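Exercise 7b. Backbone tokens:
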């Protein structure tokens, strides 16, 4: 009865094992590479989809949109403060300018006014809640009101609980308070969001990297946005409706 392999049997075993490794290695390597490609592709499509969802959120909050083939820009209402604090949705930054062109009505707030050199009112609280670290900085006591009917911006100062001082022509009718002008654009293969606080304090934030294309196409009812990843050569499109 044999108790051990002979040298020949050991050599033959290694030869058979080597042949099996050679035969099986190619499918294993192929399956690994295929699985890796699927994983990378899923990551790319996830990132593309998240980028499109972010742009859609901005687009849905826009007033007076301006489009080019690879950018869009618009005013953002203080009622649609999507970048900072959702709890501020309970505040109301809209209302109506009365016919005398000097006083206003806002259902839930007195907006922003100055009393004895001290800022008071809900708009003042709104300003204080957004410190510099949250990138919302109001460097002056005036603000910007958007005439909803005429799609026009007015710079105003509210000096007390009722009086409005216009810096340009006056108007009466429905308004909403603006807090920023926003632009989404492609530059150097990156997609950026630029936020202009309307007081010449522009800041840009990176939304997505390594993008070869950002294309906006408008039809009568919707906006089609297409973006492409440069490294994986993958593209994704989304229709956005206002």
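Sequence design result:
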């Amino acid at each position: 009865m044999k108790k051990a392999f002979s040298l020949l049997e050991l050599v033959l075993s290694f030869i058979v094992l080597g042949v099996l490794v050679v035969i099986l290695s190619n499918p294993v390597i192929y399956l690994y590479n295929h699985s890796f490609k699927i994983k990378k592709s899923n990551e790319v499509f996830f990132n593309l989809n998240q980028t499109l969802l972010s742009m859609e959120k901005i687009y849905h909050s826009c007033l007076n949109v301006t489009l080019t083939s690879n950018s869009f820009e618009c005013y953002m209402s203080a009622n649609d403060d999507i970048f900072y604090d959702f709890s501020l949705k309970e505040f109301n930054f809209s209302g109506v300018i009365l016919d005398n062109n000097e006083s206003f009505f806002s259902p839930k707030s007195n907006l922003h006014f100055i009393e004895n050199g001290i800022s008071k009112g809900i708009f003042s609280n709104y300003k204080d809640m957004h410190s510099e670290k949250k990138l919302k900085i109001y460097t002056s006591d005036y603000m910007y009101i958007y005439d909803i009917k005429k799609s026009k911006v007015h710079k105003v100062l509210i000096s007390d609980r009722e009086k409005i001082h216009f810096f340009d022509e006056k108007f009466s009718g429905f308004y909403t308070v603006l807090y920023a002008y926003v632009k989404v654009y492609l530059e150097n293969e990156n997609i950026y969001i630029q936020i202009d606080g309307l007081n010449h304090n522009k800041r840009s934030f990176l939304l997505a990297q390594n993008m070869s294309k950002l294309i906006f196409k408008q039809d009568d009812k919707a906006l089609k946005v297409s973006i492409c990843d440069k490294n994986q050569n993958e593209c994704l499109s989304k229709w956005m409706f206002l």
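Instructor comment: The helical segments are 7-60, 122-129. Residues 124-139 have pLDDT under 50 and may be disordered.
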